[in-house]
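Reviewers of the previous submission asked for a worked example of the structure-prediction workflow described in the proposal, so we include one complete record here. The input consisted solely of the amino acid sequence. No template or homolog information was supplied to the procedure at any stage.
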Amino acid sequence: KLIVEVLSLSTEAHDRGDKFLYYRSIPEFSEYLLVNQYQPWVDHYIKTERGEWMMRSYQGIDSMIELSTVDQQLSLTDVYEDVELADQT
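From that input alone, the workflow returned the following structure tokens.
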């Protein structure tokens, strides 16, 4: 139901393109998180009841994601715990 991918510069286009297209062929698959490894940014895709995909972006370490498949909240603070992020200045 839920797949989480950590993006890198060399895999991002594939993860957003062909790989996501393949995942969408899995009937049970309904939620996809793409995690940027360089800054606190997560793209969250959710399959609607009509079979359409909706995307929300979360930026900033204080963001909170509502996961529908596992009925949980996920904070970007927890996602990026112990991750040394690039200096934003």
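The helical segments are 12-16, 18-23, 76-79. We consider this example representative of the routine output the project will generate in years two and three.
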